[in-house]
Amino acid sequence: MIRGFLNEGGRLKAVEGASELSENLVWIDLINPTDGEENDLESRLGIDIPTKEEMEEIEISSRLYNEDGASFMTATLPAQADGDDPQMHPVTFVLAGTRLITVRYHDPRAFQTFPQRAEKVPMGCDTGEGVLVALLEAIVDRLADILERAGREIDGISRDVFQHKGAKPTKSQDFQKVLESIGRKGDLTSNIRDSLVTLERLISFLGQGAMQRKSSKELRERIKTLSRDVRSLADHASFLSQKITFLLDATLGMINIEQNAIIKIFSIASVVFL
């Protein structure tokens, strides 16, 4: 499937028949592209679109490179991240001249919300580079939302582990649920942190390219802001990971204390009956 977007005064306008690849398209979004769609796009633009297997390679040289006058950048992004088990797959961003091409095999939410907002509000989508920066801003906002939700839920787990005085003692059978919750939040936080690492590298590569392309000062400042935001989120993800590790240790410690207490009770009972 191919989606196409035109620039209208800094706004995006979705067009029908994007498969015709009009020269005026500022953004071409390939979703689960067929071999025919890939080949047609490659022949029209004179670039080599990476395959799904190539996108999944983890070497930096395979994810960030310049080829045939175009810049290729790949990052791992989450989709269906309202729960604790998001789909984590790579997305490739290609800057070819004044056009952005994105290649993806899943549906991160930013790819749904960003075009809708960019259609109503001017977001500097005059060129492919402008579209890319605005799209990355939407992606980073989405990752921030996921981390904020994870933080609130981790705080809830913390309250379950460290109950207030006067509360009923935690039952042993509840510890399994607590451990499962901690494990899920740990996996989620780890996935988002990995995504942020790939984004940090991508944005650094984009910033270097913007200097070489002599992009506008405003655009370069937005890229710098993106870089700072991503580093800040990565630090917060690391903090959440540390908190999860602490909760895991505390929970295991409480399980050990409870088991020792049970053993002590049985020991005393054995002495009494003997």
Radius of gyration, rounded? 24 Å
Question: How far do the termini sit from each other?
Answer: 78 Å
What is the molecular shape? elongated
Structural class: alpha+beta
**Major sheet: arrangement of strands:** 2-1-3-7-6-5-4
Q: What multimeric state do the chains show?
A: single chain
Query: If helices are DSSP runs of H or I spanning 4 or more residues, what is the number of helices?
Result: 7
Contiguous runs where pLDDT drops below 50 for at least 5 residues: none
**Helix percent band:** 55-70%
User: Quick check: average pLDDT?
Assistant: 85
Q: How many DSSP E strands?
A: 7
Main sheet makeup: 7 strands, mixed
Describe the protein's topology:
Blueprint: E1 2-8, E2 11-15, E3 25-31, H1 35-45, H2 52-55, H3 60-63, E4 64-67, E5 70-79, E6 87-96, E7 99-104, H4 110-120, H5 128-161, H6 172-213, H7 217-273
Parallel strand pairs: 3-7
Antiparallel strand pairs: 1-2, 1-3, 4-5, 5-6, 6-7
What can you tell me about this protein's structure?
With 274 residues, the protein is of the alpha+beta class. It is built from seven helices and seven strands. The protein has a seven-stranded mixed sheet with strand order 2-1-3-7-6-5-4. α4 packs across α5, α5 packs parallel to α7 and α6 packs antiparallel against α7. The radius of gyration is 24 Å and the shape is elongated.
